[in-house]
Structures are given as structure tokens and as C-alpha cells.
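Page header: ASSEMBLY MODEL / four components / 1396 residues total.
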Amino acid sequence: MFFASDNTSPAHPKVMEALAKANEGYAMPYGADPIMERVRAKIRDMFEAPEAEVYLCATGTSANAIALACLCPPWATIYTHQNSHAEEDECGAPEFYTGGSKLTLIGGKDAKMDPGHLEARIEHTARVGVHNVQRGAISVTNPTEAGATYSVEEVAKIGAIAKAYNLPLHMDGARFANAIAATNASPAEMTWKSGVDVVTLGGTKNGLMGVEAVVMFDPKIAWEFELRRKRGGHLFSKHRYLSAQMDAYLTDDLWLTMARQANAAAIRLRDGILSIEGASLLHPADANSVFASWPRAGHKRAIEAGAKYYFWPFDQSLEGSDEEMLSARLVCSWCTTEADVDAFLALIS
Amino acid sequence: MFFASDNTSPAHPKVMEALAKANEGYAMPYGADPIMERVRAKIRDMFEAPEAEVYLCATGTSANAIALACLCPPWATIYTHQNSHAEEDECGAPEFYTGGSKLTLIGGKDAKMDPGHLEARIEHTARVGVHNVQRGAISVTNPTEAGATYSVEEVAKIGAIAKAYNLPLHMDGARFANAIAATNASPAEMTWKSGVDVVTLGGTKNGLMGVEAVVMFDPKIAWEFELRRKRGGHLFSKHRYLSAQMDAYLTDDLWLTMARQANAAAIRLRDGILSIEGASLLHPADANSVFASWPRAGHKRAIEAGAKYYFWPFDQSLEGSDEEMLSARLVCSWCTTEADVDAFLALIS
Amino acid sequence: MFFASDNTSPAHPKVMEALAKANEGYAMPYGADPIMERVRAKIRDMFEAPEAEVYLCATGTSANAIALACLCPPWATIYTHQNSHAEEDECGAPEFYTGGSKLTLIGGKDAKMDPGHLEARIEHTARVGVHNVQRGAISVTNPTEAGATYSVEEVAKIGAIAKAYNLPLHMDGARFANAIAATNASPAEMTWKSGVDVVTLGGTKNGLMGVEAVVMFDPKIAWEFELRRKRGGHLFSKHRYLSAQMDAYLTDDLWLTMARQANAAAIRLRDGILSIEGASLLHPADANSVFASWPRAGHKRAIEAGAKYYFWPFDQSLEGSDEEMLSARLVCSWCTTEADVDAFLALIS
Amino acid sequence: MFFASDNTSPAHPKVMEALAKANEGYAMPYGADPIMERVRAKIRDMFEAPEAEVYLCATGTSANAIALACLCPPWATIYTHQNSHAEEDECGAPEFYTGGSKLTLIGGKDAKMDPGHLEARIEHTARVGVHNVQRGAISVTNPTEAGATYSVEEVAKIGAIAKAYNLPLHMDGARFANAIAATNASPAEMTWKSGVDVVTLGGTKNGLMGVEAVVMFDPKIAWEFELRRKRGGHLFSKHRYLSAQMDAYLTDDLWLTMARQANAAAIRLRDGILSIEGASLLHPADANSVFASWPRAGHKRAIEAGAKYYFWPFDQSLEGSDEEMLSARLVCSWCTTEADVDAFLALIS
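Prediction written out in full:
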């Protein structure tokens, strides 16, 4: 009953096998390993983007922040949702990598950017020439930090705004696999066909030890990305171990299989919770996270039994009346079983 | 016959076992895994430093650059050898992490800092108050980029200068194990007992996939280190996989065993080369690297047979007279065998 | 009829005299001129702060951004009003000087920070340890960008919050003289007695060519300020010309006399506008700025007659019905005359 | 007898007149003043560069560092002489404005870059791809910090290297007027005709209060320069006072007249010193600075009589034998008189 985060789950056995296999003999360092060649080809295929440039990073924060630094100069601003990971959970990594750009916060339900608010803030940005920070880049997260997914149409709407203002569009895809599993969109439709310039394809939260791919549909920024990655200390000498994980991830659609398991577990969890009297959802639970409220008594039983998850917001207390509703975030992963979900539901119901 | 770099070697089987074991079940992220507790305790023991703070990074560049940023403000300078990794091989990572500090380059044989030159440059730095960059920190690398080791006494001499000027002393220990194996000094003598404030204990080049420990003998900078590591995207969510590698490294002195193998291979290589007529060493070959010259004919035979290593400097050519001396860097690792060495020597002799 | 900004006004004749006098003979550079000694003493007197450290900058943006950089590390955030100059009019100068800190935007009427909102945002900041940017500093502007002044009590309320959270409090005093003239508070009461740690005493908008004093009640940050000022290119070699302007400003209360003239003109303007049918104020007009609405017909007549001022917001149009209300910002300065005001009122009425 | 620096001299009376004249009435801020129009036109004429973009800064450090930041990305290096102002006297301003670029130090007599050494360092920079900082920009200072001037031919030689490696060439012209006065070259020949892309035309050391013009022969970087200047807090609201100084400077060749006076004084000083027995020059004294040695007895007499200048290097002492040679830097300015020089020579002879 481990719903604290998908990053608490282990790596998939096939990933471990791939690592073991990659560990044979010597390999050229810094991305010149032969596995990386395969990874590049597979990702180009997956995104139907034969010209795309592909790089690996070991953490999501680095993958996204370095990509954003290639898209937004220091004197500009990145439009991002006020609850995005970039704003709330990275200790200022985008500001660090860009050299001091601003983040302009956009509102919207379920941590999805409201297009009208986005446009209003873009308009506001550039009203006094050199005195303001300039318009830089737009960054969306799919699925969002609230567990909702953007549909292809919704991304395309943001993409159209990006195009209208000639701004690059970045997608934080830390859980990209879960978005694809949830929407059945193709990776290409979800990204470049809808106006996305750079996407990160997360693996860490979905069964890898720690690898994210940065996919640049415009290869012109690739060299700058390489330099910024190196300078940030994110170019791995024994790069083959990153390549091997990503290679396994992309083999036989392992990425999608794992994301589907996680999403299915979340749906089971969601449905179970909603059958509790008084329970409700905070957000729609489109992918592998469930944000929901149910009575304190159920929380007490679950936590006493060792279930792990976070109150959302954090500052709620187990002390108080049994009937009061407390809200929580529950995240499923590729290894969450039906039994886990059912055991948990039995406790909180 | 792979002497290109120790970073081309695989991980040790015990490290792979430890990873497999760490992969069972769920684990709290971001360094809160139980394995990290063990690692911390082992490193404190190893360095006889019960108060030391210990953090893990996945790359040497990040470990060193983040540590330096905690020691040197943006308006100060880091004294480092002109051939150090920080100066020559990190695309400006120290400048990036510090927010624009300078590197003041110190000369000295075999990439070891000349103490006299160091003092002269420190004196020079602060001669005009606010107009100059200020004195920041001193960084030594042991073993050096030229394969030489500092003795404890030599480190202590630098340590005394650091103390005299009230400057923190950092040791880049990307190959720290090789230095200890070569000198038989204790880790404590080689570091804090000789005036070192922060050392990085490298694992990547010595049998791990990619982990370095940053050991701070002064725990006061620990929180700043944590913030800078997070902000730089170097805090791993699935941290247990870093912990597990380092834990294996520290178990039954695996780190030292591997370093001794590498160093022994280098000595065998060095002695073999020196028996070639006309051959000579560029640097003393104290640890696991050999910088040596021998006739072009031998290089031709080795390279044709598939041996991998770098000319040093790079811009030498296989074209030319057989007798001319060409110089090369040869790096041994924990998995370099006597047979590898002997096969190589047979080719170049 | 020049109400575009107080920075369009000339320097006061006494300032020009002081410059001419300072221009005699040689003077030691970089702040070692004897006039700076006098300036320092006068500002210490003015603020009843004999230990305060005082530095001059030539622009308000540099004075404030460098001060903030001494108060807020790169991984922290500055709490500031969403309409502050730091957020809206400096092209990211605070982010640049701090090395990438964030600005956390606080709401509140008339561009004054709402203390409740401030506390809520401070509480929100630190809820997840190393993952968030940290609490850095609080910055208030007095008078605000909306022409309102904080009373001493209001500053003290913010000061108490700063103290409760152990955060430094900065006051952007680009128009500090106007705030003092408006409230009749003493400079000490308005600043350190109410919890302010650093204030900038603006001169540029109030009769100087371009000088601002940075007053640090805690002298411990002084050396860092000096280094950051130098490194930012803001240490003037011919510093005497900054000193001389500030010296004239502080002689015989010229600063206060000029601010009173500007404020009196604004009151006259405000009262005249309010006598127009349908006219109204957007903000209270506490100091030398008036934000007000009146019918388009009046705007047309004024602009045709050559009056200079900005619509507020910018994107209003002179095209349309005569009766519609358009809003504007009108800024008075030390040299705005009653005749100017009356001529303008005659046009718009 | 004030030879400490040209920045200790006052502003020229015509500059004061221009300021007084500029002080009449209101003027639009931030460079939109009509005087700036004239300045732009005059500088384009002066440099025979009708497309050049021209901006003003109040300090030399800001003018040069902001310009360099437009030419060199954070991950690259600026080739500059090891004794340049950028390296030795700016507390890291170039590193700050570029966001952490490196300065690669070039040797050469009299603080002039040795072209062979420059080429060797450029070659060395890029030898290992992404692992090194990249080749960024070249910066020369004319006249140098050692008082020597580059001839047009010498600049052109550096310009040819810049072109060969496709690197931008920056000239720090803090004393550009003195270089032109010394060489009789045209500003165009000394700059863009010899390959210079950006030059700063210094005024502060040569009779202004504090203004430098940044002249960009390639207007494509102009907008970035404006944003960086604003963000650095170097865009003056009351910009007319910068414009007015520069306008006076460019009227009737005042800049050249003043530089010629300064240079003539230096030649008189040089010749006088060389007539002292045992005296010698450290550098050729091409412009307005004289670096020379003469016996301690002469130094004692001069300093007792109130002469101001710096020992060079600083750490020489007045204590010791009368005959020993001590070396010094003597800087003449537009207001150094023949009488000043002769009085000084009388003391030291």
C-alpha cells in the first residue's frame, strides 16, 4: 500500500536485465555507446520525427530545466502553471539554468493552463519594451501535477497561442507515458503535431532507475543543449547505463505497458473511493494519481495499517472527528497491484 | 586492451548485485532510503570523522562543482592547477555553479600545484581591495590529471597555506581510491588531518556505474549543499540506487581492492614500457595512469590490433617515421588484467 | 504640463551648483572623495543610525537589486507586491543580481502588500524542505507604484512578520522623500524602528540627476554590497559627482522641500480632478502621483494642448465617445508649479 | 602633481556647460532625449559607420562587460591579456554579466596580446568538444593597461585571427581617445576596418564625469545589449545627462584635444624622467601613462611634497637606500599642465 509517489517504486525486471547486459566489457563514454544509437532511433520512430535530436538525463529536473534554458533567455519569462513542478518543486532549477529568467504563473483548473489566462499574461508581459522581462517560452506538464491530462486538442490550443506569439512550447513529460496511456493519442499528435517544440519523456517515475529523454523536434538547439548539460554536470561518463534503461523502456512498448498498469490501478482506486459515502475527487484522476477526500476514520485505519501517502494539502491532521473529510494524494505506479488497491480500499471504506 | 579511460570499464559484479538487491519493493525517495544511512556511517568511519556530512551525486563534475560553490562566492576565485579537470574538462561547471567565480591557474610539475606559485597568486589576488576578485578557495586533485599523487605531506603543505589565508581547501577525489592505494595513507590523513575541508570520494571511475560521495568535514555548509544539489537537478528521487552502489563500494574494502588492481596494472604497464628502448615517462605514474612515450612503430602495431588509448597531446599522427617517439595516456581500471597489459606490451615493444 | 513621470524633470539648481563646486581640482576616486564622508554622516544623522553603512548608486534599479542580492540567496524568494517596480519594470534585475532567485508576488490594494496574503505565501513557501525555493527577503515600496503610502504602523506590521519569520526587510525608497513628506514620519520611524533592514533613499526622481543612497542598518552586509556593486559595474570612479548631488540633497532639507512641492502639486491636481463630474480616483494619491479617471473629452483637450502623461492601463484610446471615462497616471515633481496644475485642470474640466 | 589616475581629474568646463544647458525643462527619459539623437549621429560620423548602434553607459566596467556578454555565451571563453582591466580590476564583472564565462589569459609585452600566444590558446580551447569551454570572443584594450598603444596594423593582425576563427572582436576603449591621439589613426581604421566588432569609446577618464559609448558595428546585437543594460540597472532614467556629456565630448573634437593634452604631458614627463641618471621605462609610454623607475631619493622628495601616484607594483617601500630604483605608474590627464610636470620633474631629479 505504497501510494506516496511513483518514485518510490522499484525498477522493472527487464530494466535490470538490460543493465546487466550493458555491463559487459568496455564501452565508449559520454553518449558514444552503441546502445544510445538504438535509443535515438527508437525515439525518432516513436515520435515519427526522423530529424529530432535526443539526449538523456538522469533526473527530470535537469532534463526540463536544461531544455528550458535553451528556449528562454535570462531576460525573458517562462509561462507555466502556478502549481507546476517547475514552480513548486525544483528549488528554482529553471531560474538557475536559464541564468535568472522569471516564471510567470498561469492559473487553470486541475493544474492545466487556462488558455485565456495564458494569453492575458503574454499580452501583459511585453507592454513596456525594454523595461519588462520579455516573452520567453511556454511550458505545460502532461499529465499535470493534479493528475489531469491535456487532450491533444487542449495541447493544440496552447500550441496555437505559442505559434501566434512566436514562442517555443515545452512539455514536461515526467509522466508522459501515463498521458499517452490515458488518452490513446500518438506521441506525435501529443507533441510536435500540436505545436510542442521540446518534450521530456520521463522514465524514472515509470519503472526506470533514473532516466529521462529530452526530445528536440528542432535540432538547431541540440548543441546548446549538449553544452548546458555538460556544464551542469549532467553528461554521464558511463552513459551506457542510461542508454540501457531507456532501451529496455522502449522495447516491446514496456513504457506503455507499465503506464497502463499504473493508470488502471488508479482507476480502480478512484472508483473504490467514490463508492465511500461522502467521498469526492479533488481532480479528475485521468492518469495514475488520485486526489480525493474521504472521512478521517478511513485515513486513521489506513495509516495505522502502514499505508503510505500524503495529505494534500500537507497540513491536515489525524486528530479530530471521524466524520470530517481529509484529502489526500495517492499515486499508483507500474507495480501497484489490484491486491494493493483492494486492501487499501478495504481499510478506508 | 582498453586504456582509453577508466570510465570505459564496467561496474563490478558486487555493485550489480547490490543494485539488484536494492531493487526490491518500495523505498522512500531523495536520500531518505535506509541504505543511505549505512553509507553515511561507513564513510564517517572510513574518514574517522563522526561529524562529517555525506551526500551522493551521480557525476564527478556535479559533486565537485556544487561543493566548490558552497566554498567560493561569485566574486572570488578558486585556485586550481592549470591542467585540472575543473579548468580543462568541465565546460565551465565551476563557473556555472558558483555564479561566475574565476579560476586562478597554478602551475606545477605533474599537474600538482606548486606551493610557491600558489602563494604568489594568492598574494597577488587581493592587492587592490574591492577592484579584484577576492580569495575564494583552493582545489587540489589527488591523483592529478597527470597520474601523479600528492603525498600526505604535500597535501599538508597546501593545507597550511589554506589555513594561513583562511581559505577552504577542496580535494577533487575522482580517483581518491587510487591515491590511497598508492600512498597507503589513511583517508583521514590524506584529507582533514592535512587541512582538507571537503573531499569527493569518486566511485564512477573505479567500478561503479556512476556515484560520487561528497564528504564535508565541516557540516555547516551541508544545508547549502543540499539546496544547490537540488537546484542543479542532482537530487535523485530513486536515490537508493546511488546509495546501493556506494554501499557495495564501501563493503569489505571493495573500493581499495579495485584501486589496487588498477594501480598494479599501471605499474606493470609502466615497467614494461620503460624496458622499450628509447621509451620514457612524461609523468611518474603513481596511480592508475601512465603517460609515456615510445616509438611510432609500437603505436602502429597496438592501434592496428585494436588497442584503445589517447595520444597525449591529441594532435600527434600515426604518419611518419617508425622511430619517432609519440606520447600517450594509458589508463588502467579495476578490470585491467595482467594479460591485457602483457598483450599490449608485446605489441608496442 | 509634464506629468509623464518625475524622472522627466530637471535637476534642482542647487544640485547643479554643488556639481560645479565639486568639479574643482583632483579628487580620489571610488568613494574615497571627502564629500562622501559628509554624505555618510548626514544620512546617519537623518536616520538616527550612527552605525549604518551608506553607499551610492546612480540608478534605482541597481541600488535595489544589489541590496536584495545581499539579503536573498539564489535559492530563495523575495516577497514583493505583484505591481512592484522590481517585478514589473526592471527586466529581471533582481533575478540577475541574486543569481536566479524567485519573486513571490503578493496582492493588496493600491500596490501595498496585504499582510495576510504575505503571511500565507511565506507559510506556503517552505512546506517541502529542499524541494522548494526557500524564504528569502521581503521588499516593500514606499510610496507604492500606485501612489499610496504605507504609514509607519503599516510598515511595522510587515516588519513584525519579517521578524517572526527571521526574514530581512527591504524598502524600495525610490520616492522615500515623498513618503516622508506625506506622512510626516521620521526616517527612522519609517525604517529601522519599524523593522526595515535596508532602505534605498531615492534622489533621481526628486531633483537629482541620478543618485540613490543605499542605507544598511546592519553593517555586516556592507562588504558584500561593495563587492556586488563593483562587480555589477556600479562603482563610479569619479564618485565625487554622485556624492555632491546627494550632499546638496541633504543640505537644508532640500530633499524634503522638493518632495513637499511635488506632493502639494499632486493634492491640488487630485482635488481639481475630483471636482469634475464623473471623475474618480483609482488610488488614494497619498504622495506625488495621481491615478484618476475623467471623461475622454478632457483627455482630448489636454493631449492636443501638449500635456504629457500616460493612460493607465496603456491600452486605452482617444477614439470614442466624449463621455466615456479614461484613466491616467499623473506624476508631479519638485518643479511642477501651481500654474502647470491649473492650466491642466482648465483643459480637462 | 596628481598622477594617481586620469579618473581623479575633473570634468572639462565645456562638459559642465553642456550639463547646465541640458538641465532646462523636461526631457523624455531612458535615451529618448533629443540630445541622444545627436550623439548617435556624431558617433556614426566619427566612425564612418552609418549603421552602427550606439548606447551610453556611465561606467567603463559596465560598458565593456555588457558588450562582452552579448558576444560570448556562458559556456565560452574570452581571450584577453593577463593584465587587462577585465581580468584584474573588475571584480569579475565579465564573468557576472556573461553568466559565468571564462577568461583565457594571453601574454604579451606591454600588456599587448601576443598574436602567436593568442592563436595557441584558441587552438587549445576546442580540442575536446563538449568537455571544454568553447571559443567565445577576443578582447583587446587600446591603449593597454601598461600605457602602450596597438597600431592599426597590430589590431588588424588580431582582427585577422578573430576572422579566421569566426570570433567577435571587442576593443576596450576606456582611453580610446588617447590611442587615436597617439597613433593618428582614424577611429574607423582602428576599429571596424581592422576587424573590431564592438568598441567602447571612453569619456570618463578623459574629461567627462562618467560616460562611455558602446559602439556596435553589427547592429544585430543591439536589442540584446539594451535588455542586458536595463537588467543590469545601467539604463538611466535621466539619460539626457549622459547624452549631454557625450555631446560636448564630440563637439569640436574636444575628445581629441583633451587626449592630446594628456599625451603631450606624458611625453614631457617621460623625457624628463629619462634624463635622470639610472632612470628607465618599464613600458613605452605611448599614450598618457608613464611606467618608469628612478631612485628612491626622488620618490621621497616627490611624495613628501604631496605628489600623488602609485608604486608599480604596489608593494615597494620608501624605506631603504636612496639609490635603489623604485618603479611607478604616472598617469596624465587632459588637465595636467606643463607646470605640473616640470614641478614634479624638479622634485624627482
